[in-house]
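User: Predict Serine acetyltransferase's structure from this.
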Amino acid sequence: MFFSLELPCTINIGPGLRIYHGIGLIVHEAVVIGKHCVLRQSTTIGNAKAGGGSPHIGDYVEVGCNVCIIGDVYVGNEVVIGAGSVIVKDIPSGVVVAGNPGRIIKTIKTL
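Assistant:
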C-alpha cells in the first residue's frame, strides 16, 4: 500500500489549515488556500492544463474526501464542498456545493 501527500512549499496557505487523513491529497504548487480550511483524503486541487491557472480557496472552506477542484477557479469564504464533487467553476461564499459538476445545493446562514 502506498501513502501519498503532495503539498509543495510554494503553496500560499493561511493559518489554521487542517488535513484529515491526508492519504492521496495532491495540491498544485500555485494554489492559494485561505485561513482555517479543512482538506480530506483523496482530493486533488490543481490546474486544468500545463500553464493554466490554479484554484484560489477562500477562508473557512471545508473540502470533503475524493473532491477535485480544477483550473483557474475561486472558491468563496465559508463554503462546504461535498464528498466526490468536481469543481470547475467559481463558487460564491456561504454555500454548500455537491455533485459532478459541483452545484449549489444549499445556502449557509452567516455565522
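The first strand starts at residue 5 and ends at 6.
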